[in-house]
Amino acid sequence: RHAAKIKLDGGKEGKNRTKDKSDRATSELVMDDRTRVILYKMIQQNHISGIHGAISTGKEANVYNATLEPEDDDAPPIQRAIKIYKTSILVFKDREKYVTGEHRFNSASKGNNLRKVKQWAEKEFRNLKRLRAAGIPCPEPLLLKSHVLLMEFLGDKRGYAYPKLREATFSQESQEGSENPWRPLYIQLLGLMRKLYQVCKLVHADLSEYNILYHDNKLYIIDVSQSVEHDHPRALEFLRIDIKNVGDFFRRMGVDTLQDRTIFDFIIS
Ligand code: ATP
Ligand code: MN
């Protein structure tokens, strides 16, 4: 199986495409045959019309911006995000601790790499559904094909993704108040973490300012492929780490945070 360079067209050039968009409309993506076939099928079956630049290229996955041409020609393209899990060997060792002890995946947790990445993709798909059902803001999962996840794009109509929490900026208005603008976000996040535990019965297990997006005073939880059931043998250990990472970040932002212990008790009871 050879990696091949392919060009995926960004859809038809409509009159309302800006120059900037047409510049981005065709991108060269390096991916394996299997992934390429999945993407072509998604285009053929009209889930997407084109795939554009990478939003993020990481260790475990790449995330791309895609668009779907709307029925109404005058409407702007519908934005989508596609997360493609990497099937290369290097990323696997780190992941074992999350899957081991997960009853949902025990029977299938041994096997080849593709099988494993498929499991993570499926887990992310299912976990996102659970978050949505509980009303926790996150991307709506739309379609899962093997290790390729199509989801709602969290960003603007032009295809710019919302910033990560760590890159959030605030309007002049909210900065003029005497309150630290990070404080209400901290409170908001504690509520989401509790809901995640109490309603979804999940611990995120990689929660930090990198896996939360921010827009218009609202936080969106992303990257839930490694999240574990609350009865996973290491769930509470992962929860303590999540609490510490979140606390460390908001302390750096000058928020007068609660003690980790207090937050832990708030979340689990
Ligand atoms: P890696 O760990 O290999 O870096 P990852 O598993 O962290 O990949 P994610 O955190 O899910 O992947 O996504 C990486 C980045 O892509 C996010 O930080 C965010 O900026 C962007 N992103 C992910 N999903 C969406 C989405 N639905 N809409 C907009 N942007 C997204
Ligand atoms: Mn991430």
Automatic annotation (TrEMBL):
It comes from the Eukaryota. It catalyses: ATP + H2O = ADP + phosphate + H(+); L-threonyl-[protein] + ATP = O-phospho-L-threonyl-[protein] + ADP + H(+); L-seryl-[protein] + ATP = O-phospho-L-seryl-[protein] + ADP + H(+). Residues 20-269 form the RIO kinase domain. The active site is at 206 (proton acceptor), 223 (4-aspartylphosphate intermediate). Its main location: cytoplasm. Its EC number is 2.7.11.1. Residues 6-27 have a biased composition (Basic and acidic residues). One of its GO terms (molecular function) is hydrolase activity. Its cofactor is Mg(2+). GO terms for cellular component: cytoplasm. ATP binds at residues 83, 154. Keywords: ATP-binding, Cytoplasm, Hydrolase, Kinase, Magnesium, Metal-binding, Nucleotide-binding, Ribosome biogenesis, Serine/threonine-protein kinase, Transferase. It is an enzyme of class 2 (transferase). GO terms for biological process: ribosome biogenesis. Belongs to the protein kinase superfamily. RIO-type Ser/Thr kinase family. This is Serine/threonine-protein kinase RIO1. It comes from Podospora fimiseda. The lineage of its organism: Eukaryota, Fungi, Dikarya, Ascomycota, Pezizomycotina. The chain holds residues 98 to 366 of 530 of the full protein.
